[in-house]
Amino acid sequence: MISVEHISIEFASKPILNDITFLINKKDRIALVGKNGAGKTTMLRLLAGEYEPTAGHISKDSDLTIGYLPQVMLFQDNRTLKEEVMTVFVGEDEARFVAEMDKTIIGLGFERKDFDRPCNEFSGGWRMRIELAKILLRHPDLLLLDEPTNHLDIESIQWLEQFLAQSGSAVLLVSHDRAFLNHATTRTIEITLGRIYDYNVPYDQFVTLRQERHDQQVRAYMNQQKMIEETEAFIERFRYKATKAVQVQSRIKQLDKLERLEVDLEDTSRLNLRFPPAPRSGDFPIIIEDFEKIYPGAPQPILSHVHLTIKRGEKVAFVGRNGEGKTTLVRCIMDQLDYFGTLKIGHNVKIGYFAQNEASLLDEERTVFETVDYVAVGDIRTKIRDILGAFMFGGEASEKKVKVLSGGERSRLAMIRLLLSPCNLLILDEPTNHLDMQSKDVLKNALKDFDGTVICVSHDRDFLDGLVDKVYEFGGGQVREHIGGIYDFLRAKNMSSLQELEQRSKTEHLRSTNGAPTEHNGTSKDSYEEMKRMASAKRKKEKQIAETEAAIAQLENEQKEMETRLAEPANQTQENFQQYEHIKRLIEQKMYEWEILSEEE
Question: What is the pTM of this model?
């Protein structure tokens, strides 16, 4: 599909990528990882055709289609949600795609009542979902996704994972969501120091292999440095001794020819950062009883009859689809919104709050170092440089003024400031959206060791795993308490949903087969005949579905056989490729027929 051949790129004479070579094959699902600033977004933009390499070449199949979701983009405001998404199908049979469109939009978290809302009524995060829906519905050969989960809730992320796993598209994505990477990708490419390292394994396995590689590189680097020091010492010692002139010149030439090893030695992932000791609060930092919040003009409350009590030292997660009231309740706790009912803040509770707009509250005229130094107290002030390095503000970056930082950099800086503020109740609203893996590990470990109380609004399952011991689920105006960690909650929720679905299926089955009414039970003969007709139609539909599923299975077997044949260079003929594409189209057609039949069930 795509061959990247010895490409390099630089900006303002600063090299970003150097002599990069790799292949993207059909159905590859690749995670592109590396520190912020390593060149991940640059690589995506090169592949999307937005940048040209300074050197090297990128070869693409002539008929290759690419769908690119950047982190930031411009939006169209003059259409409704449905109209905007339907632009994908211009020039095609629009009716054929309606079921797929509905399924995709709803899978990404929208409701049917949103379909006719103008796009300009949605927040930036929801509009990114609209763009993601459009890209997915085009079914491009290659999906380039830059932080696609930043604006998704847990349910939407799980839907996207399944979509990517079942999609026929190849995928290259950048994400700081470790669980998402493990579920959505099977290959990992790391960019570091302008080079790449390609691992044919999911992210967790990559981490282990990367550590082994890093340790080997460090040993080789240290050995080389020792050799260089010894050689330079020899040269300096005997530089002016005539009897050693030949040896000195030989050593000088040796150093000139030496290919200097590079290794990323800035490894602060093991930094043991701790919050300041939390002053003791009352036993119950938060007590909420019969709580209700309704926005003016809204048809119904966003939250109603909410009861919850958070004990001192608990670490809890607020989860649920966007728009279900998580941030609203947090803002009520912070006394930023009015409400009905009881909301009590416990004795001696000192709140540290990280809001989604926290980055906008920083003093733009201070430097990064000054911003942190201003709030740091005690011994922690001696570690400010280490802390800044852990959050990618090492070296000269610590002297940047806030006003020149990107949105992601500002968010990281705001998080550092919070880490150093003494408090006993931490409320974090989507704290990980702009943190990379290393920064999230530092934050998570600090929160686990924190001896106060934590409320975390997050969609990042890996971040919440092992951190929280209680989950509050927001949905339908209600808040439901689940004891246990985030994966306990997800497992219980899936089991519950399957049981409910199974129970509904059984009820419908009994009603349609065993519950056929007769004249003697008070139902008319016409009604009885109508029930018979409906039962017959149902059996016919079920037969059609079964036949379609069998046809899909047969075609998928043929597709696998063709893929096996095409793996051999001798079989890569035009005729075989045409046959393979024909099978793919037949599968798509049968899948569409199956979806229509299933929708009508």
Answer: 0.60
